Amino acid sequence: MILLASVTVAFAFAVAADPIVQLSHGGQLQGKHILYNDVEVAVFLGIPYAKPPVDELRFKKPVAYPAWTGVRDAKTQSPNCPQKDVMQTGPTYGSEDCLHLDITVPGEVNSKRQESCDDLDTWWSLHYRV
Q1: How much is the pTM?
Q2: How far apart are CA 20 and CA 14, in angstroms?
Q3: Where are the beta strands (DSSP E) in the chain?
């Protein structure tokens, strides 16, 4: 019983500690803290920046992803774009719904941190089609 209570408290603390950021369109992102080279960073993964280029959007200019309300989970990476190993036979893997970016922010992210983006080192990863 004590072990179960300890696990429940630890889980609740881990969930509460996840960083949440407010976006300009009103929605929020909830990421997670990880250690990278012994430095704590906040990561926000799989953030959509455009609608998937399928059906009527194929071979067209990207269409911005619509704003959302509430908190969007940004703790897992999005699928890779379709790929095929040219040296191997076999199926193509990936998803056409792959227009997402990942953002890594050093240190603690919380509502009290009000830094300008100009003063904050941020790493982001972006995939796009040419």
Answers
A1: 0.69
A2: 13
A3: 20-22, 28-30, 32-36, 39-48, 71-73, 100-106, 123-126
